Amino acid sequence: MTAATAVGLAVAWPLIAVVWITVFSKRPNLRETGILLTGGSLFAIVAGVILPEVQAGGRPRMDLLEVLPGLELAFEVEPLGMLFGLVASGLWIVTTFYSIGYMRGHHEENQTRFYICFALAISGALGVAFAANVFTLFVFYEFITLTTYPLVTHAGTEKARKAGRMYLGILMGTSIAFLLLALVWTWLATGTTDFRPGGILAGKVEGTQLMILLALYAFGTGKAALMPFHRWLPAAMVAPTPVSALLHAVAVVKAGVFTVLKVVFYVFGIDLLAFTDASRWLTWVAAFTIIAASCVALGKDNLKARLAYSTISQLSYIVLGAAFATTAGVMGGGMHIVMHAFGKITLFFCAGAIMVGAHKTEVSEMDGLGRRMPLTFGAFLLGSLSVIGLPPMGGSWSKWFLMLGAAEAEQWVMMLVLMASSLLSIGYLMPVVVRGFFRPAPVEDGHGDHGSSGFHEAPLLCVLPPVATALGGIVLFFYAGDIWQLLTGMVP
Amino acid sequence: MIEWGLYNYWVVIFLMMTGLYVVISRGNLIKKIIGLNIFQVSVIMFYVSMGKVRGGTAPIDAPGFEIYSNPLPHVLMLTAIVVGVATTALALAIVVRIGEEYGTIEEDKIREIEAEEHPN
Amino acid sequence: MIDALWNLIGDDLPALQIAMPLLTATVCVIVRRPMLAWAVAMFNAWGAVVNASILLYRVWTRGTISYVEGGWPVPWGIELRIDLLNALVLLVVTSICAVVLVAVPRSIANEIPREKHYLFYATYLLCMTGLAGMTITGDAFNIFVFLEISSLSSYALISQGRTSRALTSAIQYLIMGTLGGTFILLGIGMLYMMTGTLNLVDMADQLALLGVNRTVLVAMACLGVGIGIKLAVFPLHTWLPNAYTYAPAVVTAFLAATATKVAYYVLVRFAFSVFRINLTLDGTHGGALLMTLGIAGMFAGSLVAIFQDNIKRMLAYSSVAQIGYMVVGLSLANEHGLTGGLVHVFNHAVTKCGLFLVLACVVLRMNSTRLSAFAGLGRRMPFTFAAFVLGGLSLIGVPLTVGFVSKWYLVLGALDAGLWPVAVLILLSSVLALIYIWRVVEVGYFTAPPEDADEVAEAPLSMLVSTWILIGGTLVFGVWTSLSAGVASAAARMLIGGVS
Prior knowledge:
Chain B is mainly alpha-helical.
C-alpha cells in the first residue's frame, strides 16, 4: 500500500465501522469489538504507513475529483495535518473503550446511532486533517458539524434540542456566512484554494482587505470558538461525556483551530502576515478570549461547563500562536493541538467517570470524593497539570513554544496574557483536586458507607482510559522533541 | 395636448385601465372575469389597430389596389381570441365550482368562510 | 433499422418535442383507462427526456439547431431554435415531468376521483407541451401561445386539489396569470410594431439597428411585468404560495420545478438575446431594479417561510426566495452571476421537486403537511424523511449538494461585480434557509408522535423511487457538475458574449 492510497483509505476507513455497526446493531459486544478493530487498524494505517512517509519529507497526495473548475476534492498530508490525524485516530481508540464503559454504565439509549455518528465524525476529522485545499477542508468541516449534531442532541430532551439549535446555528451559520465567503474570495483572487507552503495570497490581496479576509476565516471557523462565537461549545456539553471528551475537546474544536493554523500558514503565509501586520488584531481577540473564558470558567460550578470554558480559552492559545505569524508560534500552536488534546480528554474522561461512579456533576459536591475515587482524581490532577502547563506534563512544552513565538513576534503583552492565563487555569482546575483529596466528605443522612476509605470507582472501562491518557501526557513530555522534529518539516 | 392621430392608442389605454381597475376593485368573481376580458380585448384592439394602414384595404391581391393593411397582427389576434375564450371558459368553470363549494362567489365572503374552516 | 428510423425523424426531433405530448394528450383522453393513460404518458415523458438529451448533445457538439416549421423560411416562418441555454432548460423540464410522473398514480389516487385520472394525465401532458414549446420556440408570439397552453393546463391542475381552497387558489392564479400573459402579449406587440418581425433572432438584429426608444422601453416594462408575474418575482409572487399549497401534491412538485423555471428562461432570453442590453450599464436601471427585487425576495421569502406552520406553504415561500437568487444572478449580468442563475434553475428544480415529492409522500400517509404531522417522522417514515433532510441541506447550500454549486457561482458573480454586500446578503439568506429547514428536521427526529397515533407505513415504492431519483440527483450533480454547471457556464458565456 502506498502512502497516497493510504491517505484516501484512512479517511474512508471509519465507514467500515459504520457498516459494521449497522449490521450488528443488535449485538452490542460484537458491534463494539468491530469499532475497536476499525479504530486500531485506522491508527495502524495513519501511524504505520502515512507517518513514515511524511517524516521522510514526503507529501502523500490523492486527488479525488474536480467539482468545479479549480475546485477539487483532494487530500495531501503535511506535518500539521499528520499530527492532527494521529491525535484524532489515536484517541478514537481510547475513547471507544471509554464509551463502552460510559454508555453502558449510564444506560444510554440509541447507542447504535451514537457509534455511527461518532465514526462519521472521525472520518470528517481525518478529512479535515488531510485536506489538500480550503475547499476540501470546508466540505469535511461541514460534514463534521452535521454528523456531530445528532450526538449533541443525543438525549432528545428539550435542553438538548436547544443546545443542538445553537450548535448548528452558530457552526453552520458562521461557516456559510463567513468561511464560504472567504473561500470564494480566495478562489477569485488566486484561482486556487490549495494549501501551499508560503501561502497563495501574497501579491493578490492587500492592505485592509487582507485583514478582512483573515477575519472571515477566523470567525468563519466557528469551531475555533473565538469570542463572540463560542456559545455553542458550552451548549454542546449536554452531549454524553465521550462526545464532549473526544469531539468537543479534540476532534471538532481542534478541527477549528487546525483550520485557522493551516489557513494562516498555507494560505496567507506567515511572511505576508508578519510583513503586513494584518494579524495583529487577531492576537488581541485571541488574548481577550483566553482571559475572558478563563474568568467565566472560574465561576462555573458544573464541572463540564467549567471544562468547556477552559477549552475555549485553550483553543485561543492556538489561534494566538497562529496570529503571531512566526514559525515558532505556528509550530507551538500545532504542538498545543496534541498536548491540550491529551490533557483535556483526560479531564473530560474524569468528569464522566465521576458522573457514572458517584453521580456528581457540580464541583461543589465533590468534597472528599478523591479518596473514594483515587485513580480518577489522580488522573484529573495530571490532566490539570498538563492544561496549566507544568512539568512533567506535555502541556508545558507547547506553552513554552508559544511563549517563544510571542517573543519572536516581540509581543510582550501576549506573554503576560499567557502567564496570567496559566494562573487562572490553576484557579479553576485545582479546586476540583483539592476538594476531592483534602476536604472531608459531607456527612449525609441515611447511607452509612460515606466517608469511609472504601474505593468506589466507576466501571473499569471508565477509569482506565483517563489514566492512560494522563500517562500519555507524561510520555509526551519526554517525546515532545519528536513532535517538534515532525513539525519542522512544515518549514521548507 | 392630445395627439388625435394616435387616438386609437388612447382608446386601448382607456380600455386596459378599465379592465385592470375592474379586476382589482370588484369582489365578485364574475365581474373580475369580465374585467379580465376587457383587459384582454384592449390588447386585441391594440394589435388590430397596429396592423391597419391608412387607406389600405384587405390584403387580397386584386387590380387597382396598391396599399394593403398588414394581415399578420390580425391573424395573431385570432389565436389570442381563442386563448381568451379558453381562459374565460376555464375561469367560469372554476367559478361555478367555487359557487358550489362555498355557496357564494363574493371574494370577501369566501375569505370569511376560509378563515373559519381552515385557519391558517 | 435504427439508421432508417434516424433518417426519418432525426432532423425532426425539435418538432417531436412539442408534437408528441400534444398528440399523446389526446390519446390519453381516448383511452380513458387510468393505468393505460398513465402508461401512454410515461412512454411519452421518458421519450421526451431521451429526445431532449439527444438535442442537448447535438447542440453541445454541433452548435445551435434551427428547425423551420412547415418549411417556411425564417423570418417569415416559425422557427424552433435550440441553443445551449434552452437545451438545458428543456432537459430539466422533460426530466422533471418524467420523474414526477412515476409518482403520480399512487399520489393522486388519494386526491382525485379515479374517473378523472385520464383527464389529469391529458392536462399534465398539455402543460408539458406548453412548457416545452415556450422553451424551444424561436418566435415571440409562439412564446405567448405556449405560455397560455401551459398556464391554462396548470390552472386546471391546481384546481384539482383536495380542499375547496384549491379552487380559490386556482382562480387567483388564473387572474394573475392572465394579466401577466396579456402584458407579455402587449410587449410583444410593441416589439413587433418597432421591428416588423416576430422571430427572436431577427428581432434582436432589428433592435440593435434601431437602438432604444420609448416604445422599446415600454415593451421592456410590459414584458418585465408579465414575465415577473409568471416567474413570481417578489412582489408579484402573491399567487404562488396559495397555488403551491393547495394544488395536488404531485402538481406542486411538477409546477414548482418547471413553470417558474421556464419563465426565468424567457426573462433571460429577452434580456440577453433579444434586447442584448447590459443590464448594469443601460440607462433604464433595469438591472438595479431586478437586483433589489431579487434580494428583497430572498429575504422576504425566507423570513416568511420560517413562520409557516404548513410545510408545503413553507417550501412555497422558500421558492419565492430561491427565485430571488436566480433573479439576482441575472441582474449581476456577468458570466459567473448568470451561470449561477442558470445553474440554479437546474439545481433548484431538482431540489425543490424532490422536497415537494417528499411532501407528497407525507400527505399520502399523514393526510396533512402541517408541522405536527412531521412529529416522529424520522422513525415512522425513515426513507421519506431522510430525503427531506438531504433536500433541505441542498437548499441551505451545504457543499457536495447542488445548492452549493449555485451559491458558489452566485457569490462569485457578486464579488466579480464588486458587489460584496450582495455576496454577504446571499450567504445570510442561506442561513435563514438553515432555520426553516431545521425546524422541521428537529420535529421529525425529536418530537414523539401523539400517543394515539396509528401505525404509519413507509411511502409506496413508486413515490420513493421518484423522490430518491431527485434527491440522489442533488448529491450526484453536487459532485459531478459538468452537465449542470458546464452547460450553464457555456450558455452564460454565449449570452454575455452577445452583450458586449
